[in-house]
Amino acid sequence: MMRPPTTLTRRSVFRAGTGLAVAAMGTSLLTPASAQAEAVRQAGTEPLNGDGFYRFKIGDFQATVISDGYGQIPIRPIFVMNASEAELAPVLKANFMQPMIQVTNNILVVDTGRERIVVDSGFGEKLGPSFGSFPGLEANLRRAGLTPESVDLVVTSHGHLDHIGGFVKTSGALTFPKAQFVFVDTEWNYWTGSRYESEVNSSPMPDPFKKGTVEAARDNLPPVANRSWFVKQGGEIATGVHYVAAPGHSPSHAAILLTSGKEQFIHMGDIAHNPVTSLQHPEWTPIFDYDPAQAIKSRKAILDRAATDRIMVMGYHFPFPAIGHVVRRDAAYHWEAAQWIW
Predict the structure, then answer these.
(1) Interval 94-128: pLDDT, tens
(2) What is d(CA 295, CA 281) in angstroms, rounded to the nearest whole number?
């Protein structure tokens, strides 16, 4: 019998000194604007953008970004491991940023006309209260008029906790009970193999992150094994949906390219964690990168492609709704967030 997935608590994270502060919330997330959106939803009309979700189009595809919540993370060393405080400080000042920033998880749902696809699944119930479990991916899906039962495919960029944590509930039930799960074959093989635990434990990640990463693979992958299928790196997932090789953050990390008509869109996965540090300084690496040198090469390649071809992209951890364009600036890049469509 498989034991229930492990839940990381704020206390365990703080106790290890990682600086990952997940703020407890004593009040409802329903602001007057979101309360209005909830009233519209209950009236049976189209929900408004901004109530934990955001809709937009990719050609003929209907896309929705679903919020999986937020938390506070120190930029250094979590997002910037290889730069000194003296190097980082003027960048933060120039961009009106503090050393501790709010980071988000953003889940992409795409209706292609053939299937409903979810890209990555967030923390699920593994970290709370503001990440994953409150108000939660499932609650925000339902606010958007979507249900977990309606999902056909769950596409995974890589096997880290904040991307596979939402597969399985603490009860042991699958969050997406009717879905098939898609992975790059070599990424699946790594996280279900014999090497990952020792390699994670010898990485520079803080101990709670090591523990969470190891347990995520152990708790969340076996329950979906019998409904998973595997694609070669760079291969086709579905009509108009392909993996794009982007290794380094994890052994076979991949971005996801969606194409409909003349429009393209790239879900960058964890190629870039922050629109300032990752784009203005693509040579800066987060503490999570499996192979930092390879991750830098992949980051620059994806950013260069997005800038050259003027492709709209999504940054999984960028400020909600996390969609926009990459623009070249000097020897690096700049983030232009898409205009909000109400």
Answers:
(1) 999 999 998 899 999 999 999 999 999 998 876 65
(2) 13
4 preceded by a cis bond (ω within 30 of 0): no
The CB density around residue 167, as the number of other CB atoms within 10 Å, is 23
Neighbours of 90 (CB within 10 A): 9
Q: How many CA atoms lie within 13 A of 330 on its CB side?
A: 6
Per the rule left: phi > 0, alpha: psi between -120 and 50, beta: everything else, 136 is left
Residue 172, SS3 per DSSP = coil
User: Token digits for 78?
Assistant: 């979590």
Is 274 strand, coil or helix?
Answer: coil
Per the confidence metrics, is the pTM higher than 0.90? no
Q: Which residues, other chains included, contact 339 with Cβ-Cβ below 8 Å and sequence gap of 6+?
A: none
- Look at residues 24, 212, 28 and name the one whose alpha carbon lies nearest to residue 129: 24
The residue among 199, 288, 304 whose CA lies nearest residue 248 is: 288
Reported as type and span, the H/E element at residue 126 is: none
pLDDT digits (tens, 9 = 90+) for 137-173: 888 999 999 999 999 999 999 999 999 999 999 899 9
Q: Which residue has the tokens 């939660």?
A: 136
Rounded Cα distance, 257 and 246, in Å: 12
Domains of the chain: 49-337 (3.60.15.10)
- Could you tell me the end-to-end alpha-carbon distance of the chain, in angstroms, rounded to an integer? 47
Beta bridge partners of 21: 72
Contact 188, 221 (CB under 8 A): yes
Q: Are 302 and 266 in contact (CB under 8 A)?
A: yes
Per-residue pLDDT tens over the stretch 299-311: 999 999 999 999 9
Q: Alpha carbon 77 to chain centroid distance?
A: 19
The residue type of 5 is P
At residue 159's C-alpha, the angle toward residues 158 and 160, to 5°, is 105
